[in-house]
Amino acid sequence: MLTRALILWLLSEQPLHGYRISRILADDFFGFWFPLEDASIYSCLKTLVKHGFARVQRTEQEGRRPERTRYAITPKGRAHLRDLLRRAWTELPSPSEAVHLALAAVPELPTAELRQLREARRTALERRLGELKRMVRAAPCPEIATRLAALTRAELAWMRSRTGGKE
Known about the structure:
Helix 1 (2-13) crosses helix 4 (38-50). A hairpin with a 7-residue loop joins strand 2 (54-60) and strand 3 (68-73). It contains 8 helices and 3 strands. The protein is mostly helical. It folds into 2 domains: 2-90, Arc Repressor Mutant, subunit A, CATH 1.10.10; 98-162. Helix content is 65%, strand content 9%. The longest helix is centred in the C-terminal third of the chain and has 25 residues, at 111-135.
């Protein structure tokens, strides 16, 4: 859902070719918020065209560069984008995260290693908070950064509550 919504959102701004979408998403600022692989972009574009959510606007070639197909959103695609955005507001993310498996399987790791891994996660979460402070201006909207920062602070607080504040 995210890949489709993201690509339709970009196409709603202007017609684009797959390479340009890839470059937008590879940008350090935009890519931080929406990391996608190039292969999924091109696969998604084909699917969007197949279902009538996007159309091929034209194929162009500059000099000796490979041909590039420019895509545009269709009215059906704009309606689909709105549906995807409504779903994004109402559907909760899956509760399944790799860290949940790690929590369930705590006895599988030696205690000393587990302490090191928890410390590494705490450090990574704190690093993420620093990144979020730096990246807030690059967020497509400030609410994205403030929400992710709140979730990150909540996990840090949860980690501290599990260790009596020692982490």
